[in-house]
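cron nightly-structures :: item 1 of 1
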Amino acid sequence: MISRFKQLGTAVALVLTACTVFAAEPIKIGTVLSLTGPAGYLGDPELKTLQMMVEDINKKGGVLGRQLELVHYDDGSDASKANGFGKRLIDDDKVDIIVGGTTTGATMSMVPLVEKAGMPFISLAGAVVIVEPVKKFVFKTPHTDRMAAEKVFDDMKKRGISKVALLSETSGFGQSGRKETEGVAGKYGITLVANETYGPKDTEMGPQFTKIRNTPGVQAVFVFGLGQGPALATKGYKQLGITLPLYHAHGVASDEFIKLAGPAAEGVRLPTSALLAPDKLAANDPQRPVVQTYTKAFIAKWKTDVSAFGGYAYDGLGLALDAIKRAGSTDKAKVRDAIESTKGFVGTGGIFTMSATDHMGLDLSAFRMFEIKNGEWQLSK
């Protein structure tokens, strides 16, 4: 009889142990980022941010009593590789949610996979095509290319600029940016008197800028790209002696852009998030404590400055974990619904309010205009 009680006790103990192990299974966060290649300086702070957040949250007990596990891959700035890694995250790694896709190309290559699998996916890329039309399981944190064009044109209009030369990259982000720029120009009384392109791996844009310089009536130049290309374009622009105002989209919002472009970056204007000037925000700005907290933590951890791209990752994982908490589980359908019902989430990029028709949740007020002065980002007045 005693032996039977011992056997029963052992069986109960094994069951309890198994239940404990099951309950303690980590929440798996998957990500595919561009850590190398032309978009490498965008993906690097994204990964650093995710690693920092996971480490900090785990020290505090995790989420829903479970630790977080980050599963990450480098697509090398290659959209086709992103597709393969996205499939691996879903089929092999069995992640609970995906936060990533540094570039528009990488993101769009994974969209069919996550939609088919019913996998919540928060992209860190910029193009409006990611969320328009709305896809059931796809969300994003960066401001869109359309918003960038509108913010730039609004600034130009205030400065009396109406004739603009556009130079856009032939990547997914650049192509979408060109389309959106063309689409909203008339709304702001802007005429695109020149419209040139360059490849994401091009190292010299002299012919394009020569055409732009020789185009009658040009009052300013707008470069739409990401990664290293825009920095090279900026250096080439100044080497040709062009003195017209130079604008960029938000694909260069990083100190790395200033380092790559050097003195040629002086005077460049662009729209991006409040993150680049955390101490210059008003005391009552709701984003001020968020961007200051993130900036302080990132610099302390990595001994390097923050960028808008790391901020996109901070917001992405923050939105994901906020949704998981509100859903009370990692059930993918419930988490998706919770992301879509996000209201008033204060991030580094703005204050997010999602809906069934808006899977980004930001408006134009989330963008701030910046100018590079004395080698630093300054809020534009």
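cron nightly-structures :: done
The two ends are 85 Å apart (CA to CA).
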